[in-house]
Design a protein that fits this description.
Radius of gyration: 22 Å
CATH topology: Immunoglobulin-like
Structural class: alpha+beta
Helix content: 10-25%
Shape: globular
Largest sheet: 12 strands, mixed
Distance between the termini: 94 Å
Number of helices: 6
Number of strands: 14
Strand content: 25-35%
């Protein structure tokens, strides 16, 4: 009786293993993750936060990352060739989503002349830095109360999953279904975002903390701290932002120290108001566009990409004349303010 039962036992075991494998594969095939990745490299000389983007370090890193890292209306256009993910049409939850989004939500964008953002990130022992060169055919300076956000803005959102513990999902063929991920991922204590107003009528810039109606962030929102600066340009606006590493501690639960190989969940959303002042955020004029999602990132850290810290040093501490050394975009920004 023992020997006839042994093959049956083996069959049961193999069947069980096969079922487990098939279950795991099926689980992977119905989940999603954007796949966006960006590396922040180290600098030896601090960035001057004036919104000018005239440091050699910015020049060096922009030459590395653009156009693959740009935030664009259609990432699959041959000019950009960003194939690290696609969004299934209709995947976003926002209204008037430009036929499914491709990272656009809450509005309508007509192409690169209407909106395009080149951006980069660097770091040193004190700060995590960001630079933006935004093409915007109708830039509006924020003119309302900065203590508590009042109205929509031409602004920048930086979003972080500091512990990098949001669910990681994968869909086949990079077909990223935002709504599915949003339903399986919510903000926790280590997830947070800041909303930056880079250009204002007062000439000072700052940030609000997380929710749409939140008060000015006590550290980033105080112009005296010099963490945020923006400038209007001939094609839109430029902005520089520095985040003290200490600002992440309340969310991370401990000091967040930049170390080689550190990975933080990360995304960017840029909001755009268009039309006659004060402008409108609604379609068909204004809207929002993101780097690694289609705007469910304010609800779901599972749609974030990855920001990776590298100790590789970028650039030179030697100042340059941007009209001679920088790409034409950056030279034009600098010349506009000389």
């Amino acid at each position: 009786m023992f020997f006839p039962n042994k093959p049956f036992s083996v069959k049961i075991s193999l069947f069980t293993i096969a079922c487990c494998v098939l279950f795991a594969l099926s689980t992977l095939s119905v989940m999603a993750h954007s796949g966006g990745e960006v590396t922040s490299k180290k600098i030896e000389t601090p960035i001057t936060i004036d919104g000018m983007l005239d440091e050699a370090e910015w020049d060096a890193i922009f030459q590395e990352v653009s156009p693959l890292q740009d935030i664009v209306v259609d990432p699959r256009d041959s000019k950009h060739n960003q194939d690290w993910y696609q969004i299934i049409p209709g995947g976003g939850a926002g209204a008037n989503t430009n036929d499914g989004g491709l990272r656009v939500s809450r509005g309508k964008f007509d192409g690169d002349d209407d909106f395009l953002a080149r951006w980069a990130t660097l770091w040193d022992e004190d700060y995590l830095y960001f630079a933006f060169d935004v093409t915007d055919d109708s830039t509006h300076e924020y003119a309302n109360d900065f203590a508590t956000r009042d109205g929509d803005i031409d602004g920048i959102w930086l979003l972080f999953d500091t512990k990098h513990d949001a669910p990681v999902f994968e869909f086949p063929h990079h077909e990223f279904e935002t709504r599915h991920v949003a339903n399986n991922s919510t903000y926790e204590a280590d997830d947070h975002y800041w909303i930056f107003g880079p250009v204002t009528t007062a000439g000072t810039s700052g940030a609000w903390s997380q929710s749409l109606d939140a008060a000015s962030d006590p550290e980033l929102g105080d112009p005296a701290n010099g963490h945020v600066a923006g400038q209007k340009t001939g094609s839109g606006y430029s902005a520089e932002i520095r985040l003290p590493w200490s600002i992440f501690e309340p969310f991370f639960g401990a000091a967040l120290a930049p170390t080689d190989g550190l990975v933080i969940g990360f995304d960017i959303t840029i909001t755009d108001i268009d039309g006659d002042a004060p402008g409108t955020y609604a379609a068909p004029l204004g809207g929002a566009i993101a780097w690694s999602s289609d705007f469910e990132n304010d609800n779901s850290p599972g749609v974030f990409g990855d920001l990776m810290i590298s100790t590789e040093v970028v650039g030179s501490a030697t100042s340059v004349d941007p009209r001679d050394k920088l790409p034409s975009t950056w030279g034009k920004i600098k010349q506009a303010h000389q």
